[in-house]
């Protein structure tokens, strides 16, 4: 018994098995849709979760930030690596005589297709659609649509190659 307690305190025994069922119940309750066998890791922040649909077998890595001020749809079997930011809203800044904070926001939905892999520390900006089977390289900033089965990377993200 002492070994079990010491293992737990030293994090040699994963508490994930204990906490995961509670986490799954929470996400099923607050998200618009939470697919079967989807996994949302520790430290993920989802603003306006009632606008977020997550398909089955989706994985969202640690410390991702998902801002659902508009609709966000994440397709089945997609993988989102840690520290990714998904933004559906940005500031309006057209009038230089008015403080930016007083000019309001532009919001647009984001759609991530099925079987998409998004690398670590990617930023996805409002209005972007990422097609089925696409790959977004780590550290990329995605500000335009990504066609199906396309590998993109960079800042801003550009086509690297097609998946064959």
Compact description:
Keywords: Acyltransferase, Lipid A biosynthesis, Lipid biosynthesis, Lipid metabolism, Repeat, Transferase. This protein is an alpha/beta fold and 164 residues long.
Strand content: 25-35%
Number of helices: 2
Q: For the largest sheet, list the strands in their spatial order.
A: 2-5-8-13-16-18-19
Helix/strand/pairing category: alpha/beta
Shape: globular
GO cellular component, one term: membrane
Protein name: Acetyltransferase
GO molecular function, one term: acyltransferase activity
Keywords: Acyltransferase, Lipid A biosynthesis, Lipid biosynthesis, Lipid metabolism, Repeat, Transferase
How would you explain this protein's 3D organization?
One of its GO terms (molecular function) is acyltransferase activity. Belongs to the transferase hexapeptide repeat family. One of its GO terms (cellular component) is membrane. With 164 residues, this protein is α/β, with parallel strands linked by helices. The chain has one domain (16-162): UDP N-Acetylglucosamine Acyltransferase, domain 1 (3 Solenoid), CATH 2.160.10. 14% of the residues lie in helices and 31% in strands. The protein contains 2 helices and 19 strands. The protein has helices at 2-9, 16-30; strands spanning 33-34, 39-40, 45-47, 52-54, 59-60, 65-67, 72-74, 79-80, 85-87, 89-91, 105-107, 110-112, 117-118, 123-124, 129-130, 135-136, 141-142, 150-153, 158-162. The strands form 4 sheets. Strands 2-5-8-13-16-18-19 form a 7-stranded mixed β-sheet. The protein has a 5-stranded parallel β-sheet with strand order 1-4-7-12-15, with helices on one face. It starts with a helix and ends with a strand.
